[in-house]
Amino acid sequence: MSIIAIIAQVINGFGTLVNSFGIVSKDKRKTLLFFIAGNILCAVATGLLGAVAGTIILVVFVIETIINYFWEKKSDKYPIWLIALYTIIPCTILIITATFAWDILPIAAGILFPLALVSKGFWLRLLNLAAVMVWIPYNFHFGQYVGAISCIVFSVINAAAIIKYDIIKKKAK
User: Fold this and answer.
1) Which has the closest alpha carbon to 58: 17, 114, 118, 142?
2) How far is residue 143's CA from residue 165's CA, in Å, rounded to a whole number?
3) Of 23, 55, 24, the residue nearest 40 (C-alpha)
4) Where are the chain's structural domains?
5) Of the candidates 55, 14, 58, which has an alpha carbon nearest to the alpha carbon of residue 36?
6) Which residue, among 163, 173, 147, 157, has the nearest Cα to 31 in the 3D structure?
7) pLDDT tens column, 20-50
């Protein structure tokens, strides 16, 4: 494994750790801040390995999360045009950048992740879980082994948050 690949593994590990703090946070604004920092790190790591579609989608995630962070300060509701834009952008990226079937995976995440960002509670966690799971085979394909393992761990943490916050607490009510 080259030094670049090792550096990419370490950076992705930190990025996923930061994202994990976001998913277990009960404060939506803190969640968004963690997602911004975590996705910047993951984008750098993915870019180091030459995974173009994945890197572009992660950069788009950062931009969408920044928009959502400031939107959360102004309003609690998202306009339909913003949600539509968040869906159209990954589809456009797919048309422009897709060179092989693997590129479809981060694009699928590119559609699921922004839907998670405009959601709350259970739906935020469920959509985010689905978005993370599509990264697992993509990361393995591009040699981002720490990223794939981190996504598996992140999926478990996310599932635990769903059980804790959405299933157990709901039963208690």
Assistant:
1) 114
2) 34
3) 55
4) 3-172
5) 58
6) 157
7) 888 788 887 888 899 899 999 999 999 999 9
